[in-house]
RIIa domain-containing protein
Amino acid sequence: MATNEPYYTSEQISIPSEFPDILLQFSKAAIRTQPTDVLAWSAAYFRALANGQTPPIKERMEMPVATQKIDTGLTMGLLKILHRQFSSKGTVPLNEIQNKYQDLNIPQEQFDDIVQIGGFNGDVQWEHFLTVAMTKISKSLTDTLIKICELLTSDPPGANARIPFDQWKKFYRYLAELDGDIRQEQIQEVIDYLANEWVIRQNGMIHPRNFIHPECPKLEA
């Protein structure tokens, strides 16, 4: 059956040399990230590459977190993506974070909830936003700090998940401030214990086993 479509031979079709690798890397990224909205994620992926930015790719596939308080749409893998995109900036416009949330198809109401809890507006400190977001997939303040260590550490998976103690203190103080029921004396008791018992022997680093140790003062009220 005759058609009006032009006929091209293989000699007439020029495929850019980098095209197969681009498609291969895209396919691997999509399989690893498992986006819920493939088209929106694909647009964000190629837009990031075109602009020389960090694309929204998970480090590895992850199973749904059964211990989440509610189905927030957030996972540790998604928060790691966002942290890679924003950690170097320190302070980030809130609408820029919102755009990245939309790229990952995280429900708008969950973004709004985080904004309300943190009282965020205009430019926000990324670590503060990350902390509040982390509470949405955590069971308690202590569990939030464990997950923060796991996200920020340079240690390989399954290792101690160490981070600098000075950085940990900032997260703990901010979480305690959000909680509102933890006395300053209690916060200082925790910090003094960890500094004198563990950090001094660990080159200024801390890991979860230190602050969940039976002898560590309670982190929460």
